[in-house]
Amino acid sequence: MTSRSIARSLAAEAVIARLLALLALPGLALAAEVTDMPPALRGDAELSYSGAFFSGPIVEDGERIIGTRRQRHDLDLSLAFAVTDGLAVTAGLDITPSLGVSFTDDGTQMAYDPVTNSGTYTGGPELGAGPNRSGGGLVGVWLGVAAGPYGRWMKTPEQFSWRVDVGVRVPNSGGTFFEAADGSRGAAPGGTGFRIAGAFAVERGSFEPYMRMAYQYESRAVIDIGDEQGDAIIDATVQAPSLFDLMGGVEFILAENREIGQRIALDVFVSTGYRTRGDGASGVYLPDVIEQSRSLVVTTSEHLVGGGGLGLIVNPNEYIGFRLAGDISAFTPYRIEHPFPVYQGAGSHQIGVNASVRGHIR
Q1: Which of 16, 59, 94, 159 lies 20 to 30 A from 190 at CA?
Q2: pLDDT, tens digit, for every residue of 224-274?
């Protein structure tokens, strides 16, 4: 081997050694957003906006009855304070300024079917575009704890980080979407909420794969339900669907300066979820129902949801960060109200947008 080839070989080995040394610095790594936690006696505050825009056909016996749209705008404030490295207390305030249900084209009124002793849209009189229903207000206050034994806040040598959150939402039974007898609808599920979530991330040079699972249980609530005409029944038991969501993604690091905490990353993710059955007031998510069902509590069937999205994370320094994301999800068909053979049909989907700003006390 010539002296020139030996020099080239040594130079190549030096470059590889430097790259391996760079990858072996997990103590300086910035954790993926889903596992990030403040260090001891420090805190985080985040303000986020989320918009969800749902649309899809309502069908009966395979025939389209009418199109439906739902829109929801949420504002969430979350706080976290680390009592020690890897353990934090958390709090959150969830507000929905606007929540609405509308219908996209002309449909028919529901008529009574003596054969099935139920209601049907088939052959009913013309309804028109259908009513609009809207509401908003306080969803609830969350209190909880978060634990993350591995991560940059612990200065451990591992290249992975993980975080577990447990929380409870204080019930707000006086402001649900099912109560409209006073002329206004709320946005709260009604009962107490319980949430447990876990996230795991690993550093692989310029990209960080992650996974997050979350389960949220919604308890039953006793409320007064009613419509805009003032018809109401007392002590109706409702229960919002419980949620299970699984998300996986990769943060691609576009630029990073670890000395000042600067980071720009592209977040690519996919998700899937399961929604349990839920109990609520009749006639809220359908354009029209027969008179006999207006005082009933009805059941929405369980269904699946899946989709994906793209986000941009920009942290100018270690004290502040921004995130902008968009996603689209599809829903499996599901029965809207159990007394009627009416389904939210195939092709139902939701477009979501999210923007947040996070402050770090470091």
Answers
A1: 59
A2: 886 656 566 667 899 999 999 999 999 999 999 988 989 999 999 999 999
Q: What is the pTM of this model?
A: 0.86
Q: Which among 303, 352, 327, 359 is positioned nearest to 74, based on CA atoms?
A: 352
Structure tokens at 37: 């936690």
Residue 324's alpha-carbon distances to 1, 327, 353, in angstroms, are 55, 11, 8
What single-letter amino acid sits at 308?
G
8-state DSSP, 187:
-
Q: What is the number of other CB atoms lying within 10 angstroms of the CB of residue 3?
A: 7
Are the C-beta atoms of residues 349 and 73 closer than 8 Å to each other?
no
H or E element: which one contains 185?
none
| Distance (Å) of CA 236 to CA 3, 233, 282 | 88, 7, 12
Does residue 278 contact residue 300 with C-beta atoms inside 8 Å? yes
Least trusted range by pLDDT, from 129-138, 213-222, 224-233, 304-313: 224-233
Longest dimension (CA), the chain: 97
**How far is the C-alpha of 76 from the C-alpha of 295, rounded, in Å?**
33
Q: Render pLDDT for 48-98 as a digit per residue (tens, 0 to 9).
A: 999 999 999 999 999 999 999 999 999 999 999 999 999 999 999 999 999
Quote the CA–CA distance of 29 and 258 in Å, as a whole number. 7
User: Which residues does 16 contact at the CB level (< 8 Å), separation at least 6?
Assistant: none
- Given the structure tokens 């249980």, which residue do they identify? 217
Exposed/middle/buried for residue 61 (C-beta within 10 Å: 0-12, 13-18, 19+): exposed
Helices (H), 304-357: none
Neighbours of 288 (CB within 10 A): 21
d(CA 271, CA 213): 10
Pull the structure tokens for residue 84: 């020690």
Alpha-carbon 45 to chain mean position: 19
